[in-house]
């Protein structure tokens, strides 16, 4: 009985928490429209899932590139960490006025990444723990992101280009930043949260039932 319980729980853990072999290939946002100076829309294809992405800000941005334009995602800053694919083409949101930026996803995503271009002397805070995946030489030179005490943000020492990861699952993310001529970003994700199949729910109920049965037998013995 104990072995059966262990096998059931092991299967559940494998289903819910197994990592894909392609976890280090990030799906980046294709920015498609921007109707004002405070928001933009886009989408990303994550495996077979299409995820809508909405950006809004309390401070105006300088520009949003949704088609052909300058590719600022050049240099070694974006692929010298765990991620092996830099943000593609010219899609970018160039922030100008400081404030709060909110990025909302149409479904729960796993391990979002923020691509950075030219975050020079900028103070940034995401409100949750972050990891600097990579940084280095980029379109405007190079700099170093210096993490703050809580590890929820950074100060850009020099022309910071690179990738910041927010570990975990999110429906939306927010960060504060300070004003500058412009500093660019885009967003990508490592994956989407799986939606359990009916068979998975059945296994879960079976596992809980076995645990309840064992607990009841132990109680009777006592």
Description:
The chain is α+β, with helices and mostly antiparallel strands and 222 residues long. It is 18% helix and 42% strand. Strands 1, 2, 3, 4, 5, 6, 7, 9, 12, 13 and 14 form an eleven-stranded antiparallel β-sheet that branches. Helix 1 packs antiparallel against helix 2. The protein is globular and about 65 Å long.
Largest sheet data: 11 strands, antiparallel
Number of strands: 14
Number of domains: 1
Rg calc: 21 Å
Gap between N and C termini, in Å? 19 Å
Number of helices: 2
- From the helix content, strand content and strand pairing, which structural class follows? alpha+beta
Q: Which stretches are low in confidence, meaning pLDDT under 50 for 5 or more residues running?
A: 2-23
**What oligomeric state is this?**
single chain
β-strand percent reads 35-45%
Shape: globular
- Average pLDDT rating: 86
Helical content class: 10-25%
What sequence of helices (H) and strands (E) makes up the elements?
A: HEEEEEEEEEEEEEEH
């Amino acid at each position: 009985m104990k072995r059966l319980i262990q096998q059931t729980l092991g299967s559940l853990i494998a289903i819910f928490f197994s990592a894909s072999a392609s976890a280090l290939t990030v799906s980046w946002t294709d920015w498609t429209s921007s109707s004002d100076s405070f928001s933009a829309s886009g989408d990303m294809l994550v495996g077979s899932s299409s995820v809508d992405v909405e950006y809004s800000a309390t401070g105006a941005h300088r520009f949003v590139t949704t088609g052909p334009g300058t590719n600022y995602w050049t240099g070694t800053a974006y692929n010298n960490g765990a991620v092996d694919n830099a943000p593609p083409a010219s899609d970018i949101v160039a922030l100008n006025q400081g404030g709060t930026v909110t990025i909302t996803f149409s479904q729960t995503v796993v391990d979002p990444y923020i691509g950075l271009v030219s975050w020079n002397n900028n103070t940034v805070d995401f409100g949750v723990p972050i990891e600097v995946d990579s940084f280095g030489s980029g379109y405007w030179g190079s700099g170093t992101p210096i993490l703050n005490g809580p590890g929820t943000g950074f100060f850009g020492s020099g022309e910071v280009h690179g990738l910041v990861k927010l570990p975990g699952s999110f429906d939306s993310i927010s960060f504060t930043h300070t004003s500058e001529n412009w500093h660019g970003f885009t967003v990508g994700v490592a994956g989407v949260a799986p939606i359990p199949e009916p068979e998975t729910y059945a296994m879960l109920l079976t596992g809980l039932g076995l645990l309840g049965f064992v607990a009841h037998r132990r109680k009777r013995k006592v």
